[in-house]
Design brief:
- The protein has two domains: 1-82, Arc Repressor Mutant, subunit A, CATH 1.10.10.10; 85-177.
- The chain is 68% helix and 9% strand.
- It contains seven helices and two strands; from the N terminus they run H-H-H-E-E-H-H-H-H.
- A two-stranded antiparallel sheet has the order 1-2.
- Helix 1 (2-11) packs across helix 4 (70-81) and helix 6 runs antiparallel to helix 7 (141-176).
- The radius of gyration is 21 Å and the shape is elongated.
- The chain starts with a helix and ends with a helix.
Length: 177
């Protein structure tokens, strides 16, 4: 969550309310966040000295406006180039694509997308291998009733990764033109 907050603050300075609105509107499709988790992320980023804030008074109410500093920008850009975790892979990959416009160099954008494509392809391959090995298991009729639906779930995972890989590859191909 911290990286998504950093990315949003790279686009513009925001209040907690505005950050929450950003998550509840467009970002909620790829990344869900509660108000409490957003406050925790801001607290952590302040402690890490990656963001700062200034206070204003509007309509008699104190308002904190957060902005990213140089250290935060550096950390965010490192995250953009980091390998994808295999847990929450889709969420992180889509978050990186969401902020890809903040990366200035076309070559760096390509590297980020290549990393995403490679990671998704590797997980797809692992799922396919698992599927092949599980297909060899001989089960009685009672066990087969349960296993068949579990196997369908695995099929879904393979197809989702295949489609995701193709989608990310299309983005990469567009950049290479």
């Amino acid at each position: 969550m911290e990286y998504v907050v950093l990315g949003l603050l790279m686009i513009q300075d925001l209040t907690v309310y505005q950050l929450n609105q950003a998550f509840n509107s467009g970002l909620s499709l790829i990344y869900s966040a509660s108000y409490g988790s957003l406050l925790s992320a801001l607290k952590k980023l302040l402690k890490l000295d990656e963001i700062e804030f200034h206070e204003t008074v509007e309509n008699g109410r104190n308002k904190k406006i957060y902005h990213i500093n140089k250290k935060g920008i550096t950390h965010f850009m490192q995250w953009m180039h980091n390998d994808l975790p295999t847990n929450k892979m889709e969420e992180v990959a889509l978050s990186k694509v969401f902020f890809l416009g903040l990366v200035e160099s076309i070559d760096e954008k390509k590297k980020i997308l290549q990393n995403i494509v490679q990671t998704v392809a590797a997980v797809e391959s692992e799922l396919e291998q698992l599927s092949e090995s599980l297909a060899q298991i001989e089960l009685d009729d009672e066990a087969r009733k349960i296993f068949d639906f579990q196997f369908k779930t695995l099929d879904y995972g393979v197809m989702a990764h295949r489609n995701g890989k193709e989608w990310f590859q299309q983005l990469l191909d567009e950049l290479e033109k």
